[in-house]
Amino acid sequence: MYSIFFALIILFLSRRIISLQEIGLRLKQKQNSVKFSIFSILLFFITAILVGFSGRKGDFDLKVLAYLAIMPGLNEELIYRGFLLGFLNKIFDKKFRLLKTNFGWGVILTSIVFGLLHGFRLTETY
User: Fold this and answer.
1) Is pTM, for the whole model, over 0.90?
2) Helix, strand, coil % over all residues of the chain, rounded to 5
């Protein structure tokens, strides 16, 4: 909860640099984006279920599942796909086009940072 609160404070304090619309906090969506969003969510959900059932099993804990499904994602979306993405897109204004989608360096850089931070696993022996 503290990390989400901290992320919201950062977004509030930086609203003069980057608007809420630029970081993706808006109520109105682009036309026809809902269909693609629902398709993407279902695809990721089915993939997650398949990966989950193929991995090693432990005791099922509904509280842990609910926490992991909601809390880390909220904070990460606010920072990575919100503030950092919008801020980097403002700094690096060059845009690319791939499969009818416009994107900039912000998408590339936040994806690399996100992947690096989630791709390493520290153990007791490092």
Assistant:
1) no
2) 65, 5, 30
**CA dist 50 → 40, 57, 67, 68, 71 (Å):** 15, 13, 20, 17, 22
* pLDDT tens track for 48-67: 778 777 777 677 778 877 77
80/106 Cα distance (integer angstroms)? 10
Q: How far is it, in rounded angstroms, from Cα 81 to Cα 58? A: 32
- Helix (H) or strand (E) holding 98, with range, is strand 95-98
pLDDT tens digit sequence for 89-101: 888 877 777 777 7
Q: Pull the structure tokens for residue 94.
A: 């060059």
Token pair, residue 2, equals 């503290």
CA 10 to chain centre: 16
CA distance 81 to 96: 18
93 three-state secondary structure: coil
Distance CA 108, CA 61 (A): 35
Contact in structure between 83 and 23 (CB atoms under 8 Å): yes
